[in-house]
Amino acid sequence: MVTGLSRALLALLASQAVTLALGLADDDVPEQWLLLHVVQGQIGAGNYSYLRLNHEGGVVLSVHSLRGDADLYVSGSTLRPSFDDYELQSATCGRDVVAVPAHFRRPVGVGIYGHPSHDTSDFEMKVYLDRTAEPRPPRQAAPGENADGSGPDIRIRKFSDKPKKKLSHKKYTNTFIF
After folding, report:
1. Which end of the chain is more exposed for a tag (fewer CB within 10 A), N or C?
2. Mind listing the domains of the chain with CATH numbers?
3. Distances (CA, A) of 176 to 39, 52, 73, 94, 173
4. What confidence tens digit (pLDDT) does each residue in 85-139 have?
5. 115: nearest Cα among 149, 91, 144, 98
6. Region of 26 on the Ramachandran plot (φ > 0 left; ψ -120 to 50 alpha; else beta)
7. Considering only CA atoms, which of 96, 154, 95, 99 is closest in space to residue 130?
């Protein structure tokens, strides 16, 4: 059981990880971070790309807008977080970084939002395992996993909708599972 003090400590560590990441170049990340995956995508104005994070442990998500402005929304309670429904978010005009604590229930929903100030936004998201984060207690194996809970940590599935003239923030273009 996680106490209030433990949660506060985890939140402090997560905020320190985010502060570190915001000031780092792509190739200059802490050696305690292990790069797990890189996702590149394009999102229309007012649309979302949804991703599902299955990997256990403390994870750092770093989104770099290559063109336009992509914002990051994360939730442990919904697989389709938005600017109206999220637990963690980063909505800057630069690099967006969120540290997902190990205690977040998996799968974690990740939403990348294309800001309406640009017709399209190209983004690259890097997913890091933060090996300094407090590990989550062991869990039961999910369907399709081995009895010890092992199995593929990263799975990607891509689904696309055809772009429409009228865009709303409820539309989505891609879904990735990792």
Report:
1. N
2. 4-135+151-177 (2.60.120.380)
3. 8, 6, 15, 23, 10
4. 999 999 998 899 999 999 999 999 999 999 999 999 999 999 999 999 777 666 5
5. 91
6. alpha
7. 99
